[in-house]
Specification:
Layout (H helix, E strand, L loop, with lengths): L12 H7 L3 H16 L18
């Protein structure tokens, strides 16, 4: 994986595209790519139930 810095003044279609997106959209895109890179499996919700046992 290669990471580099890009100046806001650099004429690039990629930079212009991402600068046109809101901070929330950029964050969601980063999370999506991170999940793909680390292959994070979806988590199951834990459900707890208290059961009254007889005879104790």
């Amino acid at each position: 994986m290669r990471v580099g810095r890009v100046s806001k003044t650099t004429p690039s279609n990629d930079v212009a595209y991402w600068l046109s997106k809101s901070a929330q959209e950029r964050f969601e895109a980063i999370e999506f790519l991170r999940d793909q890179w680390y292959e994070t499996p979806p988590r199951l919700q834990r459900v707890f139930r208290i059961v009254q046992r007889e005879g104790r």
